[in-house]
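ingest -> fold -> write
write: protein_1
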Amino acid sequence: MTSTQTLPVDEPRAVDGPAADPPGTTERAALRELLAPVRTRTRVAMAMQVVAAFATIVPYVAIAELGKTLLAAGPVDSERVWTIVWVVVTGLGLRAGFGGGALMVTHFADVRLQAILRRRIATTLGRLPLGWFTTHSSGQVRKAAQNDIGDMHYLVAHSAVETTGAVAVPLAGLAYVISVDWRLALLAVATLPVYVVAYAVMTRGMTEKMEEMNRGLAAISATVVEFVTGIAVVKTFGQTRRAHSRYRDAATETAQAYDGWVRPMLRTEALASMALSAPVVLLVNLGVGALMVQAGWVSAIDLFSTTLVALIIPVAVTSIGFGMQARREASAAAGRLLELFGAPTLPEPERPRHPVGHTVEFDGVGFSYDGRTTVLSEIDLELRQGTVTALVGPSGSGKSTLATLVPRFHDVTSGAVRLGGVDVREIASDELYRHVGFVLQDVQLLRESVLDNIRLARPDADLDTVRSAARAARIDDRIMALPRGYDSVVGEDALFSGGEAQRVSIARALLADTPVLVLDEATAFADPESEADIQAALTRLAVDRTVLVIAHRLSSIVGADQIVVLDRGRVVERGSHDELTAAGGRYARMWERGTN
């Protein structure tokens, strides 16, 4: 018989010493680290693009030489003409071959990097403590695996090649123009300073403005979610107009901020684009160049060829500006990916030990999520093999936290949690989960058949075995009533209520047949009629197993071998139902009120 114990309650204590924040990583450093596996290929592609850039200038040089040859006094040198033609063809071929080859190399590099990053994400997620997933939504993981990696596509597959071309082409062009006449070189870039100054004005404070816009969009999204999720309550109390006004106000505020930022910037952008537009470049080069020809400084054919080169310089330069936003997004994505990769993983023991038996012990356990506020303090409990222990207490008392320490969702801050006499930190994760099964409040069902959802832990289980577990969880009849029975797909032709989904997850835990079960509010969504049947199934399941259950209704755990009352992270009472009610303490008052 378990004796009744009443223990004093202290206020939560802060853990001594400040929490050490992980060192920040700059976006540039993040990019360097993530792009390291494809850096060699990227450099090869950049070298190929340099060749393509110089080849781009060859046709313009050849046209100038062809003009000089055709306008020369005397008979036309046909052999020289054909030589120039072949030089043009060769230049165009080199440009196409090396330019296309550079893009092919970077696209293959992008595919390789995506594969590396996705494998790294999968590996990281597999090593994270299960508690990490309770504080991070599936949307964040999906964003990392899809959106963030997708944002890096431009950076890897295009940015390096395009930026190299944008730098190399003007340099090669200027080198040629300077070789012709330095005054024509100055003329070729005469409008470039206007673009540079205008672009600098446009991008000033852009980071802060982008952050402001992101906050505005987040506010709009929040009001949309609030309105949609609360539509029933809003309509019931006739507050539709008021709820919609919050969305309208958020959208209007963001739109006004965006308009105030973009409107003046558009005028500057128009000036910058006009400075490098073909008509303006032609007007400046041909207008001023004509005066140079008239003065006898340069020849007309030299002016013609350098003007053609001057026209390709703006195209190369503006491509850098067009890719700037994509590079910013890629840099931000790289930072988010590194943040995911830097999440503390679950340490695996170098020399794993094997538990002997199924008794669970909490020995002086203390725990804190953030290293400052203590959630659990000095927890000493023994969950003997083949018994049911129920955790009760007010909301925030630490029941769920204590239960999740057994399957090692988190590692304890102090003390130890032992399974079969072995610290759970010394048991390999895969073996630990073969010994410990759990059913949580937040049920997660995959978009697969009901059959595959239940036999997730035992993929080789046959239908009869699965149905046996489902019957024990009181969900078999509901599944058989589905259009395709156990082959019905969750989310398509299998739509479960909260209580039904909970029973599917209970069936999954029953099928896993682990010697230790952690049930966090396992009957929270069960209707009163089926709750008794579920409790009966769990009672049968507890034979020769260790069960830790967080009670939603006190009536559901009156038959537990041990009831533990938590308050403010400490054990304040323990004993059987009869012992605790007779003691007249915290549990007795909860029982009288019918609350937990």
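write: protein_2
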Amino acid sequence: MLILKHAVLKPNKINSKSLKNVMKFSPIYSNFCRKYSDNVNENVDFTKIPVERIRNFSIIAHVDHGKSTLADRLLEYTGAIKKGVNQVLDKLQVERERGITVKAQSASLLYKYDGEVFLLNLIDTPGHVDFSNEVSRSLSACQGVILLVDANSGVQAQTVANFYLAFGSDLVIIPVLNKIDLKNADPVRVCNQLRSLFDIEPESVLKVSAKLGTGIKEILQAIITRIPSPQVDRSTAFRALLFDSSYDRYRGVLSLIYVKYGEVCVGDSIKSYHTKNDYEIKTLSVLRPDEVPVNKLVAGQIGLVGCNMRSSKEAYIGDTLHHSNNDALEPLQGFHPARPMVFAGIYPMDQSQHVNLRGAIEKLTLNDSAVTVDIDTSPALGHGWRLGFLGLLHLEVFSQRLQQEYGAEPIITAPSVTYKIKLKPTKQNMKDGTDIVFINNPANFPENHAIEECFEPMVLGTIITPDKYLGPIISLCMERRGVQKNATNIDNDRVMLQYDLPLCEIVVDFHDTLKTISSGYASFDYEDNGYHSSSLVKLAILLNGTLVDELSSIVHVTKSQTIARRTVCKLKDIIPRQMVQIAIQASANGKVLARENIKPYRKDVTAKLYGGDVTRRMKLLAQQAAGKRK
């Protein structure tokens, strides 16, 4: 009782072991985790649940606001899992280690309300900006969302982005404040932020603690009463939206579909609208969150389909599946597939590991359709691949999964972005229509005399920060060639800034620098803003006059001198001394911008001299020079 009293009065002062003991013996938590048999019968036929009692929803929030914890409590409350299990939907090792959600996961929940059994299809989504495509495709199968906001941190940049993503899709938004049990939580302040930014009235905001399990019942009731049932028709021909896929080594590609019209059964022959391929359905299942095999899926449901697809290229995200004998059907309105923003070269540590690394990349891309793969070759690193990612965190997570899940040890080059180059008109490119080229590898950058105009990708960045860090953050954005578009006061302490920023300036270390100068309080989110004209040059690195493409980069002309000086100084520290002098040069448009020399190892042939004429010294040095020339 003493521990329980201490936990209630000062919940942030107890450690995790004490908290587990409190939650184990607390009557609130014991009542919260009641047995599944008291709520819903286990043997419910999913196909018998009418459309009016189906709800499809997602949880969206900024990173680390408690999405996965809330999903765990919803699963526990509805009896889908046993109590005490954490991060159920975060199945990857990298997700558990970093405490972030990388891959969207779904689960079908059964909940009894007013004597009727409801089917609630939950899709947990990532919070980091790099995985916003996971959010957008999850929302395509939903009619409503839970907008989760930390009662301590308040509205963050990704909260704003996710809100407008859901708002633009005409989804019902249920605002929820999490972590109200913390000592520093300020629900009134955060509710005022929601009202000033999104016109959400404080009376409609639910207040919960996902860790302690308080307020979960109110969320489930709000899902049922506020979110509408899906607008589907079970009496027409089968059509379903394919919005996610994963790879199983024994069953091939498993497709997660949202059935919009009709029904589909095991043994049916279906066809892909995009690839025109026919498949026979081998397995159907509902995720609870583990797979539960079923014989039929009907309109309004979300389920997993196994139909012997061999590769993820066949499972086109946003595709429409229909019965093979109904070719005249119109495709469902899907969503735009993700476009890679950051590119990097990946090479094996040793060319003997090339086959193993190729197999690991092929298997991993089956579970991550957002990664693009092109074959690349380097004189220094051998055969490899040029991979496209959604952001720098996406690249880090991908490389970490390569090491953890497949034991690969890749070499990864510096990340770059895709530039658009307009070439000067010639008879050949005017005839072929190739006067516009896209470059993501500095080695392919055209010569300066062949370029008419260069364009670089821009993003619209949103920064939310306490006002006391405003000066350093504005300086950082100006240093990165940002142009301010908007500034809004959220409340008395926080400001939202919007900047047009070049993508190449933010992919490497912008987020880390922003967190450093704001003591971790600022948050950042960005969205694509097209291509803008810019003055770009290729910064070539030469070692003893030999061009090294792996070290070259594409930079803005105003920063070429600074980056050239920084690069050659860094290389001077990294490259070991040799028996001959090494000249490190950085040049742009044929002009050397910076140079450093690495002095050679040199035997002191004059050490034995103790006197005499200077000609003896000159003779020994001449002999040494002749030997070096030889």
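write: annotation protein_2
The longest helix spans residues 614-629.
Residues 189 and 221 are 25 Å apart (CA to CA).
pipeline exit 0
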